[in-house]
Amino acid sequence: MAPRILIVEDEEKLAKFVELELSYEGYEVTVANDGLAGLMAARDQDPDLIILDWLMPGLSGVEVCRRLRATGSQVPVILLTAKDDIGDRVEGLDAGADDYVVKPFSIEELLARVRAHLRRIQPQDADMLQFSDLILNRKTREVSRGQRSIELTAKEFDLLEFLMVHPKQVLTRDRILEEVWGYDFMGDSNIIEVYIRYLRLKLEAEDEKRLIQTVRGVGYVLRD
Prior knowledge:
41% of the residues lie in helices and 22% in strands. The protein is an alpha/beta fold. The chain folds into two domains: 4-121, Response regulator (Rossmann fold, 3-Layer(aba) Sandwich); 128-222, Arc Repressor Mutant, subunit A (Orthogonal Bundle), CATH 1.10.10.10. The strands form three sheets. It has a five-stranded parallel β-sheet, sandwiched between helices. A four-stranded antiparallel β-sheet has the order 6-7-8-9, covered by helices on one side. The longest helix is centred in the middle third of the chain and has 15 residues, at 107-121. It is elongated and about 60 Å long. The two termini are 13 Å apart.
């Protein structure tokens, strides 16, 4: 299941822009346009992460955050605000926010922060990953599709594991290269395409449906 993200932002154009970017990355996104609606959505929908504007009609983002923490909610909260003074940052963090992004911001930075916070709340003991009829065992490093066992090389396994940890999320080539091959990789820039082709040949050896889809000009996504 894709991570659920709640955006609480009264600037409709900005909210729509962030919603589209997050949806494109494969997240399930809900938008609330004021503090009270955001607080109710957070309580009713139990999101995995909240992107929360500071200055809004009715309840401010800081007050929404305080009320959520008062109920015992530990959902990660990223505050969006034009306030950049140290005192403002301290106030937001003291209210229970986990992170702070100053407007105007880079969408790439916001997406990176979202990924970082979601990684922290992912269960670390999920040894079995499954998507459609594809199953990957992290402990034994075995892979199967339906009743068919699939032999993978170490790097093929690592690449498939990364795709399965982020199902339905569009993963850029740069991100795949960083996460699977490492930041210091200096090899052939076409290495990802080569390994995707290897994986497809093995996963579709008996004419099974394609699961690793190409997003032209961007990267790849695991979806059925």
